[in-house]
């Protein structure tokens, strides 16, 4: 369904080519996270996720991560739910190894935002546990979530919806982590990272303006460093 939506959107908006990787990532994330008893809701989720990429855009860059956007819509409307701990501790550890391995195999240039988010999130949770004098078992329970891993490795790391520069991505990861924990502990809402990301996504154009960098290209992945012009006197003898 996601691939069909992407193909139709590419043709309707006259985009130069169709890239199936984004649709594949969105469909796999929805299959792993979204829970619903209605097939129509599942089909609608796929349609809305891919449709948001083509409709909600700024300077040829979509604002919201498709999976994150549709999950928040589904949760807010009460049409489905998410089970963060559905895989258990053993499966969680195996999934963590698989996620880390995917970074090594693909040499993802956008791994900095994933690592920054996990560092900030775990660090803030650890500081909170010390402040409240909570046992570390509570902290371990909070971070042993399959949904958190999927979010960190496949949502916030989306190169098409994160800031272009490395500095911007690190700042972005901090803002998302702070927003996620605020929503979770102030409003007592589960799945805080999803709500934090949807709240911070509109800030990406501002971060791109404050910390400019090169736009991500699937065929030539880079860390987002802005191109530097070198004088000919330096290159030529």
Written account of the structure:
This protein has helices spanning 2-12, 20-33, 39-55, 66-77, 88-106, 111-132, 136-143, 146-155, 166-186, 192-200, 204-210, 232-235; strands at residues 34-35, 81-82. With 237 residues, the protein is mainly α. Strands 1-2 form a two-stranded antiparallel ribbon. The protein is globular. The N and C termini lie far apart (57 Å). Residues 1-7 and 227-237 have low confidence and may be disordered.
Please outline the helices and strands.
Elements: H1 2-12, H2 20-33, E1 34-35, H3 39-55, H4 66-77, E2 81-82, H5 88-106, H6 111-132, H7 136-143, H8 146-155, H9 166-186, H10 192-200, H11 204-210, H12 232-235
Antiparallel strand pairs: 1-2
The whole-angstrom Rg is 19 Å
* Overall morphology: globular
C-alpha end-to-end distance: 57 Å
Please provide the count of β strands. Answer: 2
**Strand fraction:** under 5%
Task: State the helicity in percent bands.
Answer: 55-70%
Strand order of the largest sheet: 1-2
Mean pLDDT: 77
Please summarize the sheet with the most strands. 2 strands, antiparallel
Unreliable runs, pLDDT <50, ≥5 residues?
1-7, 227-237
Protein structure class: mainly alpha
SS summary, helix count: 12
Helix and strand sequence? HHEHHEHHHHHHHH
């Amino acid at each position: 369904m996601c691939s069909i939506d992407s193909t139709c959107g590419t043709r309707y908006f006259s985009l130069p080519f169709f890239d199936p990787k984004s649709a594949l990532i969105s469909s796999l994330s929805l299959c792993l996270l979204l829970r619903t008893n209605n097939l129509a809701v599942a089909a609608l989720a796929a349609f809305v996720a891919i449709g948001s990429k083509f409709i909600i855009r700024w300077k040829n860059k979509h604002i919201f991560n498709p999976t994150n956007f549709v999950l928040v819509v589904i949760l807010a409307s009460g049409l489905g739910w998410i089970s963060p701990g559905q895989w258990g501790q053993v499966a969680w550890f195996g999934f963590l190894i698989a996620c880390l391995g995917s970074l090594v195999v693909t040499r993802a240039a956008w791994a900095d935002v994933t690592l920054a988010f996990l560092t900030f999130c775990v660090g803030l949770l650890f500081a909170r546990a010390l402040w409240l004098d909570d046992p570390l078992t509570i902290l371990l329970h909070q971070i042993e979530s399959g949904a958190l891993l999927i979010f960190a490795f496949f949502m916030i790391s989306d190169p098409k919806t994160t800031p272009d520069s490395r500095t911007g991505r690190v700042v972005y990861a901090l803002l998302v982590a702070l927003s996620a924990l605020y929503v979770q502990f102030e409003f007592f809402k589960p799945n805080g990272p999803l709500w934090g990301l949807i709240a911070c996504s509109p800030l990406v154009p501002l971060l791109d303006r404050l910390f400019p960098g090169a736009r991500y290209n699937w065929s030539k992945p880079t860390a987002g460093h802005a191109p530097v012009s070198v004088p000919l006197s330096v290159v030529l003898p």
